[in-house]
Amino acid sequence: MAVRFDVGSLPPNDRAEAIREASRALNGRSEVDVPSNPDRIKAVTTTSALGSVEISSIHWNVTAIRRTVGPMTDDVEPHIFVGLQKSGVSRFAQGDRQAEIRPGDLVLLQNVNPYDVFFQGAVTAFTVRVPNHLLGLPPSLLGRITAVRLGVERPVADTAAAFISRLVRNQSAIGETDAGLLAQPCIELIRAVVTTGLGRDDLAREPLHHALLQRVMTYIRLHLAERDLSAERIAAEHHISVRQLYLTLSRAGISLGDWVRSQRLEKCKLELASPAHRFTTIEAIAYRWGFASAPHFSRVFKAAYGVSPREWRHGNRQLPAETE
Question: What is the pTM assigned to this prediction?
Fold first, then answer.
C-alpha cells in the first residue's frame, strides 16, 4: 500500500520539524535545512514497501540534508539508498567523493556513514532503499560507489533507471503478490549497478545462488537474538520459498537449525566469559540469544563444549581490568 505524506496539510510552523522527524526515522542522526519562510516549505512523498525494499517518490524544496558522525538509532537498519533524479540539481558528498546529479542520473548513498546532500531549489527524485544484507556485498565495496554519478551512458544504470521509474509510477497499483515478485529483480538490478559501476564484472557474474547464500547468512547473523527467526521468516525476507532456502543452504553443506544453534551458542559462550556480563544470569544470557529455557540451553551447551554453562563461566571468568 502506498503511503502519501504532504507537509502542506500541516500548519507552516510544524512543517520543518515533520520533515526532520521523517529523516531521522530513516537515517538516524541527521540535520535538515529548509527555507527560512515556513510558508514556502514544501515536501510531498509517496512510499511503498516491496517486502524489505522501499520505493518512494519525493518532491520538495529542502535545501540540505546532512548525516553527521554518531551512532545509528537501534531501529534504523543499514541500507543503501539509490536515488534517481527526475528534476532539479543535487550535489552529493560521501567519503572523499562528490557528484553533481542532474535529471536521469542515478546516485547511491550508505545511510550508516556521514554524508552531505545539497539541493538547488525544488527537486523531484525517485528512490529505492535496500538493506545492505540483501545485496550480499562487503560494506567496503559499497563505500566505493556512493556519491558517484551513474549516468544513462552506462547500460546497466540506464536499465535500472527505467525499472525504478516504472516501479515508482505504478506503486499505487502494486498489490501484495506483485510486491513479492518485484522485490528480488529490484535487488539484483541494484546489485548489478554497484558491481558494474565499480568494474567488478566478477561479482556481477557471480552465480545468483551464491549471492543469495551470502545475503541469507548475513541476515541470520544480524537477527540471531530474535526468537522468531524461522525458515519461513528468512525465506519471506529474501522473497524465496522455504524449499529454495533449504536447497541454497544444503548446496553449501549447511543445516539451518544446527548452524543457527551453533552461532547462538558461540554468542552465549563469549558473554559467559565476559566481565561486562558477570552479573547477568545464565538464564538471561540464554534467553537473550533465542534459547527457550535454561535446562535446554544447558543440555545443548554441554553437548557442544563438554562442560556446563556454569562450569565454563567459572573456568573462563575474566576479571575487569581495574580488579586485576
Answer: 0.65
